[in-house]
Specification:
- With 421 residues, this protein is an alpha+beta fold.
- Helix content is 58%, strand content 13%.
- It has nine helices and ten strands.
- Strands 1, 2, 3, 4, 5, 6, 7, 8, 9 and 10 form a ten-stranded antiparallel sheet that branches.
- A hairpin with a 5-residue loop joins β4 and β5.
- The N and C termini lie far apart (81 Å).
- The N terminus is likely disordered.
Length: 421
């Protein structure tokens, strides 16, 4: 009788606590696989909970903003009548979609990191709470292994049996009560496993989308280069002049000033009136005095489509002072490796290429005396003279701790880009 009751009690203990064993033993494989997936797929550095949550919020905002830009640029491409503008808008839309996939990939990685941290904390709590139940189950198993026939030869065994049955009748309800919250924790663990599986699937889908969109952008850029071969001679001469200025400039500020002077001269020449054709009868011509028109005030408003050139955390703001005491003239952004870099606004490429310890840089001239500078690129896909729209692809980031710096200048003077976004 006692042995049968102990067996029933052990079965009940297995029912109320068996979920833990199932989660640790049977579910250990899936948990380990998901954890391995987190460590293998996530390239994010270990951060605290608040930083992870901030990264998740920023990735969600960046994905939504990139999707909105892609929709706007796609609509503008459909409305464009000129082939050049249409292609430029399509390329910018693809670059925005690439940034959306990058943000979704970061979001999935951060979610996996958060889920992995929650799972480790849950496992630690379950391990602590399991110990009393393990000891109780072990004691009941020892009692169940005692042969029932020995009770007839041991004095007082019948009384002990009655006492043991009374103890067990009060123990089993306590086990159920104390394991109620434990069963809740086990269900939470299963929910975490399912969430991790969903985030892992989302991450793989974002990676596939990212590669597909990069391939589409590469094909589109190839078509653009083929279509612009007729202007190769002009572009080559402009690029040679820009490289010569880069060699003569003492520093980056001097290079921007020299490029600004060349741009101002080019605009002045473009504003001059053309030659006057000689009349058929020169003797019938009359000399007329012409007073020059008063100069019109030059517009100074900034570009209307200013945006950050790459997605990532702002590592240093405008005016920040580094360890060497140098004050920042722009923003330092910390992107993921190979992140898509885009034009911060519509304009014309004045310089593109490597420059003295800044990696590959791109200098873009905007209307009304505004200039933007993007440094730290691992690859640049534009050339001097290219006309860009806001969001046009410039190249890709190096990553691995190399910042993308973004400067916005008005008549050569640095200003805070965040004030014009």
């Amino acid at each position: 009788m006692l042995k049968r009751f102990l067996v029933i009690t052990l079965s009940a203990c297995a029912i109320v606590t068996g979920g833990f064993g199932l989660s640790v033993a049977a579910g250990a494989g899936s948990t380990q696989q998901l954890t391995a997936g987190v460590m293998a797929a996530s390239t994010a550095r270990p951060l605290d909970l608040a930083a992870n949550q901030e990264s998740l919020r920023r990735a969600q905002q960046e994905a939504a903003a990139a999707q909105e830009r892609a929709q706007t640029l796609t609509a503008q491409a459909q409305e464009a009548t000129q082939a050049v503008e249409k292609t430029a808008r399509e390329a910018a839309a693809l670059a925005a979609l690439i940034q959306q996939s990058e943000a979704e990939l970061v979001e999935a990685e951060v979610r996996l990191t958060l889920i992995s941290d929650q799972r480790r904390q849950l496992d630690r709590r379950l391990a602590v709470r399991q110990q009393p139940l393990v000891r109780l189950t072990g004691a009941l198993q020892n009692m169940a292994r005692r042969p029932l026939a020995l009770s007839a030869f041991q004095p007082g065994s019948l009384k002990d049996t009655v006492y043991a049955r009374a103890v067990l009748e009060t123990t089993l309800p306590q086990i159920r009560v104390r394991t109620a919250s434990l069963r809740t924790e086990l269900e939470r663990g299963r929910l975490l496993e399912r969430s991790a599986a969903q985030s892992l699937a989302q991450m793989r889908s974002s990676e596939a989308q990212l590669q597909n969109r990069k391939a589409q952008l590469a094909n589109l850029e190839l078509r653009q280069r083929r279509a612009s071969r007729q202007a190769t001679g002009i572009a080559y001469r402009e690029n040679e002049r820009a490289l010569l200025l880069a060699e003569e400039a003492r520093n980056l500020d001097s290079l921007i000033d020299r490029l600004g002077e060349a741009t101002a001269l080019r605009r002045e020449l473009a504003a001059l009136t053309g030659p006057i054709m000689r009349p058929e009868r020169p003797g019938a011509s009359q000399v007329m005095s012409q007073t020059p028109a008063p100069p019109t005030p030059r517009a100074t408003h900034p570009p209307s489509d200013v945006q950050l050139p790459v997605q990532g955390r702002i590592a240093a703001g405008f005016g920040a002072v580094d360890d060497a005491g140098i004050r920042s003239k722009g923003l330092s952004l910390d992107p993921r490796a190979g992140a898509q870099v885009v034009s911060p606004a519509s304009g014309r490429v004045a310089f593109a290429g490597p420059y003295r310890g800044f990696g590959r840089i791109v200098i873009i001239e905007h209307n009304n005396g505004w200039t933007s500078l993007v440094t730290g690129l691992g690859r640049s896909d534009v050339a001097v003279g290219d006309a860009l729209v806001g969001g046009s692809p410039l190249g890709s980031a190096i990553g691995d701790g190399t910042f993308i710096t973004f400067e916005l200048r008005r008549d050569g003077n640095p200003v805070n880009p965040l004030e014009y976004m």
